[in-house]
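Kindly review these tokens for lecture notes.

. . .
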Amino acid sequence: MKSMLSLAALLTAAPVLAQTQLTIYNQNFATVKETRVLDLHGGENEVRVTDITAHLEPDSVVLRDLQDPGALRILEQNYESDPLSEGLLLRKYEGKVLEFEVTIPHTGEKRIVKGKVLRSGYVPHASAFGRYGRQYSARQTAYGQPQGGGQPIVEVDGKIQFGLPGKPIFDALGPKAFLKPTLLWKLWAAAPGKHDVEFSYLSGGMRWEATYNAIAPEKGDTFDLIGWVTLENMSGKDFENAGVKLMAGDVARARPEDERSLEYGALESRSAVVPPGVTERAFEEYHLYTLPRPTTVLDREIKQVEFVRAARIPAQRIYVYDGFQPDPSTRGWDSRTIRTRPDYGTQSSPKVWVMLEFRNAEGSNLGLALPKGTVKLYRRDADNRNEFIGEDRIDHTPKDETVRLYTGNAFDLVGERRQTNFRLDTNNHWAEETFEIRVRNHKKETVEIRVVEHMVRWIQWEMKAKSMPFQTSDARTIEFRPKVSAGGEAVITYTVRYSW
């Protein structure tokens, strides 16, 4: 019996419908879908919607009648994203007389003074900083500074003072005051009565991520895996008993022009009976994970749900020496400079990586599309307690793909890489270089070290000489696999010619 929760069993569980559905993306946004009942009269209606997130994207709003798609139309939509605050009320009182509660020092006595608000100091449109670019943001920010006119000015008893004389006391609010972000709709309804509608929109302020804990026994590299889904709601709205789906994948989203301009040209075995778990299925070019039952996701809450538990996953420990170390000073070099400068690509690192390699397949007790996330690795010590041995991140990994986890650098393995020759013939358009790589093993047993080399100078290359066979990982990466005896050293040399 496999240790992983059976997807077939999970998919047969009867779905529980919720009035609110959330699809949360691991790119810091979500789709909110709600079913509502609107009691409308025929013709034009005005509807106010206040129970929305503080990060709603107004141009993403979709409203449709579930029985008759042509029964409703949004004639006009206004989004009030600047809810009521002291600063906003002060702005509305500019030029008017307002009462202020003043506390007398030492005695604590409170009294009321009246003052005329000449300037509120309120900085409007802060929510538009990102949309209108850095220049707009800088001007609005300067407007809010004291030297830019952002400090309140109040006239009290014929004298001007900067700053408020006390706590402002406002009149009662009118029925049209916006206490939180609000949508105002002018709706046209074909017929009077109650309409069952679906209301959906995109919202920022929500995210999810996958985290994994891998536990290996005291000896050997077979391990158990527990995967968690962590949800975070910073949207400004509570979602009661919501159905939750999680979308894994790189979903394309258009970005504002000012953002584009900043870019640069980068476990225990399963029990006999288990409760329903997270189901997973392909959707478009992504993967969709569905929580088994409705859940409440409160604002400013972090919630975790277990979505995978697998035991005895076979793995292999591998050692990798990738000695090439990019030189920051060469960043931005063009292809001609890279081909012809003898010092390019000659910096070296002595570290040998320790990696754990396994197959995400049913034969390995897995076979579930794994969303990207952080993996923490533990190993049981002689006292049967877990000791932390490393941490790495995995990308979105489909079923039947290989996963490599970097756990750290080997203490007893050392690499050395140096260029021993370089020749350049600009007339015949070729460059040739030779490298010598040494890997030393200070362990008490023989180990295989995968020595990785990158053909960094140009896309067209030819191996002219080599001291041992190699494998090609991709069009510009090769891999030697020497076995290094205990206390021994392996020496690899190769000569490569680039032509253009």
User: Anything to note?
Assistant: The chain is about 10% helix and 50% strand. Confidence is low (pLDDT under 50) at residues 1-18, 258-276.
